[in-house]
Design brief:
44% of the residues lie in helices and 15% in strands. The chain has 14 helices and twelve strands. It has a six-stranded parallel β-sheet with strand order 2-1-3-4-5-6, covered by helices on one side. A six-stranded parallel β-sheet has the order 9-8-7-10-11-12, sandwiched between helices. α5 links the parallel β4 and β5. α6 crosses α9. It is globular. The structure holds uridine-5'-diphosphate. Uridine-5'-diphosphate binds next to α10.
């Protein structure tokens, strides 16, 4: 498996992975999160566990179980850690702990290294038996509601180390802290090479013509992704450049606002025949892959963002991305080199036109974008970093 990455991932990463695999051979590495499917954490774990095994590590992935009340509470904790006020009572915090206690009885927590993902299973630390315990925070912890922060930190501070995705999302927890950005898997359905034929077939399936340049944004229908701003920018572009806009995404099942936003976007697009709003079913990885490859220009015009995996996904396909200067997007887009960072509709429109009018530059920046992802945002680098933290903490 890992051998399949040779010629794709940087050689140095693969050598390090091999050496760390030797050092940590047959040692056990347990990951725990709160869902087997849906969301970036589960997606990456599905790919990462077999790769860890392949380099000789006894990797396991467990999922904590809870009822609706538990997940309502953890959603509130999640929101308040990201800065939105939620009323979380002592009772709720107690329930959060209790559900984790019950899970701790069921799960085998014995391992040499234990990586706990996000706040939902954070209280498991109270039941540690052995090994190095690391708390892996995927969300923005830079500006939390104080009460929630204080509660959660009581658990976090008992860990040996904490890992954050982006430096500006981190917070001083009082233990060793590391920054490890997320990654994409170049060999997953979402990113694997596709034939031209498949790309064209996908466009046909969605009844999208391929006679003009395609401008694309793939996102959940969420106001923070600014789909209306994308349409506004497109309208400015369309006055001068004949082109097509695709806004593709799933209605997020756990987000009641999703439906409202879709309606807003459809109304705003009105009857413009060149705007394609695609509501993708879950597991549309190959279709997303094909759309990203079919596009001339990819946008991620977010107003607020976590890391923004769609940016690396498009960059890996040789597309320079125009992205909002927020969250993890500036880590991926080196302004003027691998894409452009924008702060307004007008800025986005200006950069789209710049790409459409200069396809040579678009191609050149796209190549740089792919190299930037190769060097920084592939799954092999992320595994390398996890193992390095584990190894360093032990030695
Ligand atoms: N995605 C998807 N279907 C959709 C919309 C998005 O599979 O309809 C994928 C997208 O390709 C990416 C992830 O979901 O892998 C979104 O991650 P990102 O960090 O860009 O944004 P988030 O949705 O986590 O805010």
């Amino acid at each position: 498996m890992i051998t399949q990455y040779s010629g794709i991932s940087p050689k140095g990463d693969l050598i390090l992975l091999h050496k760390l695999g030797e050092k940590l051979n047959n040692r056990s590495f347990l990951h725990i999160n709160s869902t087997r499917a849906g969301g970036g954490v589960a997606e990456i774990l599905h790919r990462m566990i077999p790769l860890l095994k392949d380099i000789g590590i006894d990797a396991r992935w467990e999922v904590i179980e809870g009822d609706e009340r538990f997940f309502d509470i953890t959603k509130k904790i999640h929101n308040s850690i990201q800065g939105n006020f939620e009323n979380i009572t002592e009772d709720m915090w107690h329930y959060h702990y209790e559900v984790n206690r019950i899970n701790a009885e069921r799960l085998n927590l014995d391992a040499d290294a234990i990586l706990i993902h996000d706040p939902q299973p954070a209280p498991l630390i109270e039941f540690r038996k052995s090994g190095i315990w690391i708390w892996r925070c995927h969300i923005d912890f830079s500006n939390p509601i104080k009460e929630s922060c204080d509660h959660l930190l009581r658990y976090c501070q008992k860990y040996d180390a904490a890992i954050f995705s982006v430096a500006k999302f981190a917070r001083a927890v009082g233990i060793d802290e590391f920054i490890i950005p997320p990654s994409i898997d170049p060999l997953s359905e979402k990113n694997i090479e596709l034939t031209n034929e498949e790309i064209i077939q996908t466009l046909h399936k969605f009844q999208i013509p391929h006679d003009r340049p395609i401008i694309l944004q793939i996102s959940r229908f969420d106001r923070f992704k600014d789909p209306i701003g994308v349409i506004k920018a497109y309208r400015l572009v369309k006055k001068y450049n004949d082109s097509i806009l695709i806004l593709a995404g799933s209605p997020a099942t756990d987000d009641p606002e999703g439906e409202i936003v879709i309606k807003e976007v459809q109304d705003y697009a009105s009857d413009d025949p060149d705007i394609y709003i695609l509501l993708l079913p879950p597991f549309s990885d190959r279709e997303i892959n094909a759309l990203q490859r079919a596009a001339t220009v990819v946008l991620q015009k977010s107003l607020k963002e976590g890391f923004g995996l769609t940016v690396s996904e498009a960059m890996w396909k040789g597309k320079p991305v125009i992205g909002g200067a927020t969250g993890g997007i500036p880590l991926q887009i080196v302004h003027g080199v691998t894409g452009f960072l924008v702060h307004s509709v007008e800025g986005a429109a200006f950069r789209i036109r710049q790409f459409l009018n200069n396809l040579e530059m678009t191609k050149r920046m796209g190549e740089k974008a792919r190299e930037h992802v190769r060097n920084n945002f592939l799954i092999t680098r992320q595994i390398r970093d996890y193992l390095s933290v584990w190894y360093a903490m032990e030695n």
